[in-house]
Specification:
It is globular and about 65 Å long. The protein contains twelve helices and 16 strands. Helices cover about 30% and strands about 25% of the residues. α6 packs parallel to α11, α8 crosses α10 and α8 crosses α12. It has about 450 residues and is α+β, with helices and mostly antiparallel strands.
């Protein structure tokens, strides 16, 4: 796949009258932001098929100017995204600073690839998807927080690649930003509806201040820069091997219901004791398939990580449109592979995830934080870790910039540690799309297990 950079620009936010254009703005990081301070960027690609206006001339004269203009406007609403992360040695924790000259990098690229194939859901080389994500400056001492790339496929379509420092926002906030940008682009407006207007007040995150210190200590525990922990440089990302491939798998409404019925039928517990949401069902199934794919030592430790959204868990609740991170990782620790390798492995996974999710509602934030820290520090070398990114409730497929809804979306940053991506299905409610990136030899085994398991529950 040949790529040609046609334009690199810096897009400045359109500041409205409520912003003092002469002063820098400072946004403190909260407890939820700090957990992701050294984490790798969140990366996503959204694909749009063009039925009209798809020649190079029409793209550069009609589509691209609208994308750039609306980006400037939406950044005025989401000003922190134009800023930089800073950590003064005198301060206990870092913060975001937005100055008048700050902007967001937008790279425009042209590709000769087959858009239908690369935007599809079948097996594709991971290196081709990664090329659609912009290079990020998150690895410097004062990193910018957002980079964007628009890749045009002449006479076919385009995609938008997003790379964001994870300390600035969680997945829900990222999707809301994309939907806000799409709304302004499509409608040519300056304002956003209430459900897309970001809530920027960080004071609503009301957790004990002692938790900030605990999370920073955990980051220090794992940092390679023991003498300069306040460095904001991230650990460099390893190059993706050419033998890694990506696939998007669908669990439709019927699949989910059949798997749910299997859990009810085979679990020794009453189904009223189990939390049998689509999230639990889908991830228990994927987790089991991943453990079986690895095979090998039946006594190896395994764990599963997911993030819980705490917006509705505070009193009063944090607004749904809160800008930033309001998620925290939850770990299912202390299990061995043999628990999942037998015929009852899937049902066991359902019970484990169900218990984990049910326990969150009865625990204080301090307890949740301590459990995560203790579990993380106790992880043994060789542990097989699986995790989940995204959600089937974000509604990303409603992001129409004016040329139709997305035909596909990929969370690119799942190409580490057997992560699974999740989103709603296009065209049907009640099901999910799950994305996965593995070595080709592992993917072949996984796909066989995945399909065989669905055929068993269907029959």
């Amino acid at each position: 796949m040949a790529l040609k950079v046609t334009k690199i620009s810096r897009v400045n936010p359109t500041r409205n009258s409520s912003h003092d254009s002469n002063n820098s703005l400072v946004y403190p990081l909260t407890f939820f932001d700090l957990r992701w301070l050294k984490f790798h960027p969140t990366e996503r690609v959204i694909f749009y098929k063009l039925n009209t206006n798809s020649s190079p001339e029409s793209f550069h004269s009609m589509i691209l100017p609208k994308l750039e203009h609306s980006l400037s406007i939406v950044l005025g609403h989401y000003l922190p995204l134009a800023g930089r992360l800073t950590w003064d040695p005198k301060d206990p924790k870092p913060y975001i600073v937005v100055s008048t000259q700050d902007s967001v990098s937008l790279t425009v690229v042209e590709s000769d690839a087959d858009f239908s194939r690369i935007s599809g859901k079948g097996l594709r080389p991971e290196t081709e998807i990664r090329a659609l994500v912009p290079e990020s400056s998150v690895f410097c001492e004062s990193p910018s927080l957002l980079s964007l790339q628009v890749t045009f496929f002449p006479n076919q379509g385009f995609c938008i690649g997003v790379s964001a420092h994870h300390s600035i926002m969680d997945g829900k906030t990222m999707v809301r930003f994309i939907k806000s940008w799409a709304h302004i682009c499509k409608h040519g407006s300056m304002d956003l509806p209430n459900d897309l207007t970001p809530f920027l007040d960080r004071s609503v995150i009301n957790v004990p201040s002692s938790l900030d210190a605990k999370i920073l200590e955990l980051l220090s525990y794992f940092s390679k820069e023991k003498d300069n922990f306040k460095s904001l440089k991230l650990v460099p990302i390893e190059e993706i091997s050419p033998d890694y491939v990506r696939v998007t798998l669908e669990l439709n409404r019927e699949n989910i219901e059949k798997l749910r019925e299997r859990a009810k039928r085979e679990s020794a517990r009453s189904h009223l004791e189990l939390h049998l949401s689509t999230f639990v069902i889908a991830n228990a199934y994927m987790w089991t398939c991943l453990v079986k794919t690895r095979g090998g030592d039946v006594n190896r430790p395994v764990r599963f990580m997911y993030v819980a959204d705490f917006r509705n868990r505070f009193d009063p609740p944090v607004p749904d449109t809160y800008f930033g991170n309001c998620v925290f990782p939850i770990g299912c620790f202390g299990y061995k592979a043999d628990v999942f390798l037998g015929e009852d492995g899937y049902v066991t996974a359902v019970e484990i995830l169900s218990d984990s999710i049910r326990s969150i509602g009865s625990q204080e934030m301090e307890t949740i934080c301590d459990l995560y820290i203790d579990g993380t520090k106790s992880v043994k070398p060789g542990t097989q870790t699986s995790s989940i990114a995204g959600s089937n409730r974000f509604g990303l497929y409603g992001s129409d910039f004016g040329w139709g809804k997305p035909c596909n979306s990929e969370i690119v940053s799942i190409n580490r540690n057997e992560a699974i991506s999740m989103s709603e299905r296009t065209g049907e409610s009640g099901g999910v799309e799950t994305g996965l990136c593995l070595k080709k030899c592992e993917m072949d085994i996984f796909l066989s297990l995945f399909q065989t398991g669905l055929e068993i529950v269907k029959n």
